[in-house]
Amino acid sequence: MKLLILFLLMVQVAQAASSGNLLLSGVVAPNNSLVITPNGTNNTTLNVTAGVSNLNVASVAETSNDGNGYKITAQSVNSGFLQLSATAKAAYTFSYNGAAAISLTNAAQTVKTSAALTQLTTATSQVVVNVTALPNALAGTYSDTVTISIVGL
What we know:
Helices cover 6% and strands 40% of the residues. By secondary structure, the chain is mainly beta. It has one domain: Immunoglobulin-like. The strands form two sheets. Strands 1-2-7-5-4 form a five-stranded antiparallel sheet, with no helix packed on it. Strands 6-3-8 form a three-stranded antiparallel sheet, with no helix packed on it. The protein is elongated, with a radius of gyration of 29 Å. Residues 3-9 have low confidence and may be disordered.
């Protein structure tokens, strides 16, 4: 008898109802990515001695699905200088997506902010540089590394 009572206490009886709820859901992972494509060899054949003006060096394909939009930042290892050494360097300015040219620093600077998005979007922006002429430059390779990043808002 004790066993029967114990058994009856352990059995849960499903009770019928006139309605019920079923939760359906799905998750879409954030996608903020970019691909930088150099424009031929423009980015590696900059004329340091004569300088260059409004030279398109790359295009950037920006992809995002952030409903609030996204921003693009840029920063320079050498703070906006093509550098051979600590004293041999040529200044340059950087323009992104047709915006006014700026001098980059080693801190990230916002160079583009998108509007709110209604769907997964890919946009392409151009990177243009201006190099100040250094007519008495020492021989060697003058370089800088620019990091371009995309961040959802």
